[in-house]
Amino acid sequence: MRTTTPAGSLAAAGVVPGFPTAGRVVARGSTALALLGALVIWLALLGPFAVLIQHLSFHSIRAALGPPGALDPLWVSLGASAIALGAMVLLGTPLAYLLARGRLPLARLVELGILLPLMMPPLVIGLLLIFLIGPEGTLGTLLADIHLTGVNTFFALIVAEFYEAAPFYVLGAHAAFASVDPRIEQDATLLGDRPLQAFRRITLPLAAPGLATGLATAWARAMGAFGAVVIIAYYPRGLPNQIFIAFQEFSLSGALPFALLLVVAALPLPVLAYLWSARTRSRVAGTEAP
User: Fold this and answer.
1) Which of 43, 147, 218, 248 has the most crowded Cβ, counting Cβ within 10 A?
2) DSSP of the chain, one letter per residue?
3) Secondary-structure class of domain 71-288 per CATH
């Protein structure tokens, strides 16, 4: 049975029929403010991309990227970033898993060591790498014994990209593994799975969306690494160095085509990883919903 509240009672309570309450006004105002803030942030983040496209023409792109050897920096960056990313997965995944499960001694000290490259300016990282793997560095003499040079070589480029990008993957992987309930792994081992089998069949699939996001972020960071690279690996010339040199020699008109090339090479993987991760998380949430 439907009941109605007399208008006099509403007026006594401070509520006028036909007018929104103060709570509704505040909620609507907050929503409008949030939408306005999201619009401003969206425009601020995408504005540079719009400017990049606006100031480019097919003729300028063809003139910059058409000559023989113009795409060599792209292949150098792709190769070095792929190798650096492989090293991150090989070394960073077990480290992130052990940190997430609290199985490492001095875990806080290890986490601090991962965070330090993020807190230090990339130029400083490049200078310190010279003292570490340069010809006169601590490891430089050992590298020379196996015919590797830590300055202005492809190997130096890989090392510089690794140092700049690896923390992004390790921290992302740590968060991904920490989001997986360890009791699920324990149940799998009780059912007969070995720890490695439980990791491969249970933990890894559940953590995959977070791992993909961390890997894609590290990829974009490695492709765009410049601060440490310009100090320790000016040659062979990757895309960030090529953009810097083209800007010095030809101003913006010469640098923008290579900037577009870097964006096209670096962004598809993070975008695809984000879309796949979001879809996978939605699917998992849908299966867990009652």
Assistant:
1) 218
2) ------HHHHHHTT--TTS--HHHHHHHHHHHHHHHHHHHHHHHHHHHHHHHHHT--HHHHHHHHSSTTTTHHHHHHHHHHHHHHHHHHHHHHHHHHHHHTT-STTHHHHHHHHHHHHHS-HHHHHHHHHHHHSTTSTTHHHHHHTT--SSSSHHHHHHHHHHHHHHHHHHHHHHHHHTS-HHHHHHHHHTT--HHHHIIIIIHHHHHHHHHHHHHHHHHHHHT--HHHHHH--SS--HHHHHHHHHHHHHHHHHHHHHHHHHHHHSHHHHHHHHHHHHHHHHHHHHH--
3) mainly alpha
